[in-house]
Structures are given as C-alpha cells and as structure tokens.
# Entry
Amino acid sequence: MAGNNPEIRYLTPVSVEVKKKKYCRFKKSGIKYIDYKDPEFLKKFLNEQGKILPRRITGTSLKFQHRVSQAVKRARHLALLPYVTDLMK
# Structure
C-alpha cells in the first residue's frame, strides 16, 4: 500500500536555514566614536524611507545603537541626511 510508506519524499529538497550570528560591527572593529558628519556611513543604518534600522536587524549593541541614532538625528538636523524620502538607496 502506498499510504503506509514511512519514507516521505518531496519534489524539492527541504531547505534548512542556517542563521549567521549577529555581531556588533563597532565592537568588532574597535570603533569608539560615531561621526555624525559622515552621512555615507550612517546610511548603512537607514532603510529606503530614511528610517533608522532596529537592533534586531543590524545586530548593533544597545550602547552603539543609541550612539547611531543620536548621530543620525544630528546629521538630519544639519541637513546631511533627509528626515523622509522615497528612495534613498
């Protein structure tokens, strides 16, 4: 009988997702100060609309996430980064 077959076969192989361990790039690189006058570096922490990416996506530690958000806010105040945009990247 075909219904009692203990072996299950799929048409496509079952993919097993291997998640890479997130790390804080600031701790790994030894960066102590985040410069608000460098908008190209700060754009890595913004999405297409200009919103600041959360820690769970970037892997940044809490201490440096506060510093990144403060630097982005300062850069926005000086018009180095936009507050809102359609397509930033």
About this structure: The chain has four helices and no strands.
